[in-house]
Amino acid sequence: xxxxxxxxxxxxxxxxxxxxxxxxxxxxxxxxxxxxxxxxxxxxxxxxxxxxxxxxxxxxxxxxxxxxxxxxxxxxxxxxxxxxxxxxxxxxxxxxxxxxxxxxxxxxxxxxxxxxxxxxxxxxxxxxxxxxxxxxxxxxxxxxxxxxxxxxxxxxxxx
Length: 159
What we know:
Layout: H1 5-26, H2 32-38, H3 43-65, H4 69-95, H5 97-110, H6 117-123, H7 126-149, H8 151-156
């Protein structure tokens, strides 16, 4: 059974995304995203979004291996909800860049990773945050394009 290369790319993307979601769930206390939501009293929203995105990503993986029309909905849903979560996190982070920076630095230190002051100064600016958000949106758009391009795969399966 041969899968198109674009399906292989999507499999890799969704497996990576599901892994990131699982990491966010398990190690949430070390994550800057959790800090952003919790500092705004939105811990339950964080967990709801992360669990929902994880389930959609896992479902998308299943449908990439077992094509079905529902795979389109789960893949698009995962991408759309993840983009929404990132947009909300960005809008909350912009309000408290020093706090987000501190949470990020603390998370790196706990994991034994280096914290370079010059890098932190470049990363935690409004401009850098918007630039990163732009790159993220481009990635979600490209993955959505690949899903759309493979509508036939989801409807007819792979031969």
